[in-house]
Amino acid sequence: MTFEWKTIDSALRVEPGKPSKLSKRDTACDNLFADKREGEALAKANAKAIDRLQDALWAEGSRALLVVLQGIDTSGKDGTVRGVFNECGPLGVNVTAFGTPNEQELAHDYLWRVHKAVPRKGLIGIFNRSHYEDVLVVKVRGLVPADVIEQRYAQINAFERHLSENGTTILKFMLHISKDEQRKRLQARLEEPDKHWKFNPGDLEDRKLWTQFANAYETMLDRCSTEHAPWHVIPSDRKWQRNAAISSIVRGALETMMPLYPKARWKPGEFIIE
Amino acid sequence: MTFEWKTIDSALRVEPGKPSKLSKRDTACDNLFADKREGEALAKANAKAIDRLQDALWAEGSRALLVVLQGIDTSGKDGTVRGVFNECGPLGVNVTAFGTPNEQELAHDYLWRVHKAVPRKGLIGIFNRSHYEDVLVVKVRGLVPADVIEQRYAQINAFERHLSENGTTILKFMLHISKDEQRKRLQARLEEPDKHWKFNPGDLEDRKLWTQFANAYETMLDRCSTEHAPWHVIPSDRKWQRNAAISSIVRGALETMMPLYPKARWKPGEFIIE
Asked: What 3-state class would DSSP assign to B206?
């Protein structure tokens, strides 16, 4: 098993400036990994590597990594955090879940609460949903006028460019599942009592707007995949494929950042510990 | 292997109102666990149980757990987070490290930044250092007058009582290591290049004040171990003992809280997912 993250990265990346062709992208993908066993082993090895790299990122103390997770209900955002980042743990990873904005947040522009939550230097920050909701659910539900939405793509690109130029590497993942897979997952929440709390009857309303959401996602991918903050569309019908793919891309990005342990400004020999 | 957390809890707890007798407490402790293998297995099982319990705590959504970690340099605060809480992961655990207060923090009372950082309902919050620094390093270094320090013990108890009465269970752990063990750990930081960044020559200044710090810790334990927020003194010379002990006490506390998955206000049969 070799670590060929570049193959995985380019297969799933949305090339900046090119149409994302979302409807033609796989929700399950059998040509990237030999089989489930290999995929799981790869994800595990990647998780350990991410942990080591984050330790160096912290020691270095000058840059951060921001991972944006977007996807419809049941697409596996929480599962991705567990599968890819638990090895790293709460010490190195900071998760922010963005829900319906509260009164104070609505009293500011939509990027205000997002900027507050970006990871500090040395950390991996994860956005579970993000500012992209402001061009997804907000657009589909018509919560703001169309011309306001239209401005947002460029505003978001400018914001992300700013973060990137100031030391934050950005990776964005759309967890892509089929309509049939969502049905199975919602059904499972109905059938398992310990998962009842995860089922929100309102989710079925969003499901009725499947096509509208798919269109909004496609426009988002077309307009906001940039060199400094690329989108990847992750086949997520199978959890092991999702974890193997995302962990590979994250690990590859961290290896490219190449965080270095700082050199001491003292000589080990100069200290005697009494 | 049975899970006898109550034995471990009472052996290490500082009984409210009784002298902590810190100098007589073990930094290594061979009577709590049969051997290293058993201790590690116990810690692993506990970590999995803590993860399951936190999931229910989140689903329930009405209470939180706050874990305070205090200890001198190299006592293993970061290692505890990894060893006990990585199974739970960044989704369920929020770590706040308290360093030297910044200008804005110093412009407020010393509990201001602490209150801002308490865990939201459903989460486990970990304080890596805490408001107790304000009766430890601040006292030893004489940064505020003695009568101001003297007031703080009761202020802290009142603050913690407030949190406890409002749904936050509090556990406080002092990671107790011997002076000789600290020497070995500081020495290791000097010898391993990838650990050089962790070595701060200033730590040696604190080491020279070993007795003063021990006295300040003892007073803190005597005055601030309460029924609603008890201190435990954890033998921490051996990492596996530390992890086995802390994970047992945390698991026991969560089992006592007994978080419950909420019952759905709908009947599974009433939904058809198209």
From this structure: helix
The Cα B203–Cα A271 span in angstroms is 11
Q: Out of A59, A87, A90, whose CB is closest to B95?
A: A90
Our count of domains for chain B comes to 1
Classified as helix, coil or strand, B49 is helix
* Minimum CA–CA partner of B52 in chain A: A194
| CA pair distance B35, B30, nearest whole angstrom | 8
Complex ipTM: 0.90
Which of the four pLDDT bands, split at 50, 70 and 90, describes residue A3? low
pLDDT above 70: percentage of residues in chain B: 99
* Residue A66 clears pLDDT 60, i.e. is over it: yes
**A270 in a domain, yes or no?**
no
Q: What is the pLDDT of residues A17-57, one digit of tens each?
A: 999 999 999 999 988 999 999 999 999 999 999 999 999 99
Q: Which domain holds residue B87?
A: 5-257
Q: What is the CATH number of the domain that holds B133?
A: 3.40.50.300
Does residue B230 contact residue B17 with C-beta atoms inside 8 Å?
no
Best mutation target, A77, A86, A274, to test chain B (most B CBs within 10 A):
A86
**Is position A273 within any domain?**
no
CA distance B273 to B89: 32
Q: How confident is the model at residue A1 (pLDDT cuts 50, 70, 90)?
A: very low
Q: Report if residue A182 sits inside a domain.
A: yes
Give domain status of residue A264, yes or no: no
CA angle A93, A97, A98 (to 5 degrees): 140
Comparing CB atoms, the residue among B95, B197, B199 nearest residue A91 is B95
Residue B272's pLDDT band, with cuts at 50, 70 and 90, is confident
Q: How far is B233 from chain A (nearest CA, A)?
A: 22
